[in-house]
Write a structure and sequence with these properties.
It holds the Pfam family CPT. This protein has 176 residues and is α/β, with parallel strands linked by helices. The chain contains eight helices and five strands. The protein has a five-stranded parallel beta sheet, with helices on both faces. Helix 3 packs parallel to helix 4.
Length: 176
C-alpha cells in the first residue's frame, strides 16, 4: 500500500495516476476525493458545522475501511489522502495494521501551491498552506512537486518502494 500524503493541490492525484502503469497488477488508485464524490449532496438542506464535521469523519473512516477491504483481498492500493487531522493517522494505524504501508510525503513550495489553488478554482485559496499534513514527522519517501513532474515523482516512488523494515507506519504505531 502506498499513502500519498500532502496538502491540497500538491500533486498527489497526478502522481497516483502516473504510478499505475509502472506497477504490476493488481493496484488500485483510490483518492479520497473520488471516494467522497460517491456521497450524495442534498442542496435542499444545509448541514450545521457539527453535522458537516460528523458526516466528513464518517466518510473518512469509511474510506479507511474500504482501502483495508481492497487490501484484504490481495489488492494493492495507492491512497491520495492528506493526514490533516491527528485522528486520521491514528485510525489508519489501527485499520491498516496488517498491511505494508509506504508513507510518501508529497511536498510543494507554498507559492506554487497558491498558484495551483487559484488555477483549479475549486478550493479556497490558502487551504493547502493551512493543512497540517506532516505533524506526525515520519515518512518513508519524499517527493517535491514544485518543479518535478508527476511522472518523475511516480518513478522515484516505484523505484524506492521496497525499503527495508521497519517502515514509517510501524515506527509511528510503536511510538503512538
Amino acid at each position: 500500500m502506498i499513502l500519498l500524503n500532502g496538502p491540497s493541490s500538491s500533486g498527489k492525484s497526478a502522481i497516483g495516476k502516473a504510478m499505475l502503469p509502472l506497477l504490476d497488477d493488481p493496484w488500485f488508485f483510490l483518492p479520497v476525493d473520488a471516494f467522497s464524490g460517491l456521497r450524495s449532496t442534498n442542496h435542499r438542506r444545509l448541514l450545521t458545522d457539527a453535522e458537516s464535521a460528523a458526516m466528513l469523519q464518517r466518510t473518512r473512516r469509511a474510506y479507511h475501511r474500504a482501502v483495508a477491504v481492497l487490501a484484504a483481498e490481495d489488492n494493492h492500493v495507492i491512497m491520495d489522502y492528506p493526514l490533516s487531522e491527528p485522528w486520521r493517522l491514528a485510525d489508519l494505524l489501527d485499520v491498516l495494521s496488517p498491511y505494508d504501508v509506504t508513507l510518501v510525503h508529497v511536498t510543494c513550495d507554498p507559492a506554487e501551491l497558491a498558484r495551483r489553488e487559484l488555477a483549479r478554482g475549486d478550493r479556497p485559496i490558502g487551504l493547502a498552506t493551512s493543512q497540517r499534513v506532516y505533524a506526525h514527522a515520519d515518512h518513508d519517501l519524499t517527493v517535491d512537486t514544485t518543479t518535478a513532474s508527476p511522472e518523475s515523482c511516480a518513478a522515484h516512488i516505484v523505484h524506492n518502494l521496497f525499503q527495508p523494515a521497519p517502515k514509517a507506519f510501524t515506527r509511528l504505531r510503536n511510538r503512538l
